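Priority: medium. Attachment 1 of 2:
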């Protein structure tokens, strides 16, 4: 009686090829983000005080609260993806997912000053002396913990939501895109990336050409779409990893399936 040869172990890595699919309904990736942007603009011109003091209130408004919850959800999804990796997956992929989990944890913690906005503890005098807003966070201490990482994240979104779709449409860098397809942002994240980039550009025009703000706090709207992009990116990675068949490469299928 012939013995069945066991399937070879699955080995996933940064260079594992996959096919991009739509990972979430467009209700979540297009309709709701656009609705939020429209509501913010309408409130800015019809109820500016309510928009500033409630809707976009610093530290306690629903939009600001989402800046804690969305990165926290992205961290949980990144950890799920890390846990789903089969034995034998490469160290590079594990480190990529770990960096995503730690980065989104950092964002969530910093947004609420690691709990200070919830529990209202006082800032130690020594820390208050070096923190721009006298809070128990790191991003108000140095630009290396705030502006420079933000610029890197913005550049990554521009690459993932503008350059990547453009190169795909033109057929450029095909071998490189296939080689990195497991970890490249998918089409589900592109609309949130476009909204974030729109607000980046509008912010630049506001600072340099006197354009008016679209909402009462455009910077917070930009952050909302950046964090939404990260969450959808994490979901994309988790789903791609979860689609692998036992003992083989990741399953692929028609785009959008």
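Attachment 2 of 2:
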């Amino acid at each position: 009686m012939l013995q069945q040869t066991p399937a070879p172990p699955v080995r996933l890595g940064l260079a594992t090829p996959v096919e991009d699919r739509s990972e979430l309904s467009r209700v979540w990736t297009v309709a709701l983000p656009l609705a939020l942007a429209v509501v913010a603009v309408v409130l800015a011109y019809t109820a500016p005080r309510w928009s500033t003091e409630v809707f976009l209130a610093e530290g306690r408004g629903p939009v600001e609260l989402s800046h804690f919850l969305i990165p926290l959800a992205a961290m949980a999804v990144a950890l799920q993806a890390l846990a789903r990796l089969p034995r034998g997956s490469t160290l590079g992929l594990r480190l990529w997912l770990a960096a995503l989990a730690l980065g989104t944890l950092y964002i969530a913690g910093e947004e609420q000053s690691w709990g200070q906005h919830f529990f209202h503890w006082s800032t130690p005098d020594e820390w208050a002396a070096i923190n721009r807003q006298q809070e128990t966070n790191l991003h108000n201490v140095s630009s290396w913990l705030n502006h420079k990482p933000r610029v890197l994240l913005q550049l990554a979104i521009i690459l993932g939501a503008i350059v990547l779709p453009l190169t795909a449409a033109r057929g450029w860098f095909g071998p490189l895109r296939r080689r990195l397809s497991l970890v490249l942002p998918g089409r589900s994240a592109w609309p949130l990336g476009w909204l974030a980039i729109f607000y980046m550009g509008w912010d630049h025009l506001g600072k340099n050409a006197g354009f008016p703000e679209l909402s009462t706090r455009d910077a917070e709207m930009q952050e909302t779409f950046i964090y939404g992009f990260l969450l959808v990116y994490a979901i994309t990675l988790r789903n791609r990893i979860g689609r692998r068949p036992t003992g083989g490469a990741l399953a692929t299928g028609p785009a959008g399936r």
